Amino acid sequence: MNNKVIFGLVFIFNYGIQVCCAGFLNMGSSELIALLIVGILFFAFFFGIFFLIYFLIKKSRDHQSAIIASSVAINFSQPDHYQTKCVEENEEKTIIKATANIALPQHNETRYVDPQDVVRCEADNNYTNFILIGDEKLLISKSLKEYTDLLKPFGFVRSHQSHLVNPKFVKSWLKEDGGTLLMKNGDKIPVSKPNRDAVKIILGK
Question: How many angstroms separate the CA atoms of 189 and 205, rounded?
Fold first, then answer.
């Protein structure tokens, strides 16, 4: 843009010189003075226009530069702090999930069991049967609903009103009775129609 302004000024100046030369050669003194005044006004008018355009462009660029500078200067410490806090919370949850056991109260003791050692759970009225690795069974005096909420974060899925299974011990999906899970220990667990889609999603279809 600066080159265009300079070129325009040079053109106008050159044109004014040519007009003046023609005036000197062909006109009288009064006409020459009038021509010079017109030339000066003409030159001043266009110089003012170019100066105004240059000033507006420069002001616009300065304004854009100020906006960019202020945007770059924004303090991102809060988002960084928020991200750091989220990472720390996720790490804490991972540690808790990796080390936490669930308490299974019995008549004469409370067993602490790693959720990943639980093959499945089965409702028995207001009691719950826990089937562990090695086919060990524990009868706990709490409902299956309580353990469904407790074990859901560990990936357990409710396949039926009376059954809660650990997906890592599911061997296959049997296409019988509307859907049945064959566990690695040989147990067959029914899948109710309302839970069918959820079970398939957990198992990866």
Answer: 17
Which amino acid would we find at residue 34?
Answer: A
Q: Whole-angstrom Cα distance, residue 166 to residue 156?
A: 5
pLDDT tens track for 67-125: 665 554 444 445 555 555 555 565 555 444 545 899 999 888 999 999 999 999 999 98
Q: Give me 113's structure tokens.
A: 């069991």
